[in-house]
Write a structure and sequence with these properties.
This protein is mostly helical. It has helices at 6-19, 27-32, 36-44, 52-68, 79-83.
Length: 89
Amino acid sequence: MAETTFSKKVEILADLWITYSNDETFADFFEYNDLGLPLAYALDNDIVVANENTNKFIEETFALLLSGLEQEDTGFDSLNALLDLPEEE
């Protein structure tokens, strides 16, 4: 079974943070992951450089997202794929 790549985890979390920041559905998740989500955005936009510490936050935040959505990591390539939404063109 394929696993989501680190770069895709960063991209997905950054997209989630930007797209759903005001969505009550994710309010508790955003509150708990108040460092991991903006860190993913900073990594995705080359504001910071990944290192062992940033990677731990990303891995934990992504694992919590999968758990909250009751999903197994099957190698997601976008937030829409993870949320089972149609892909935007």
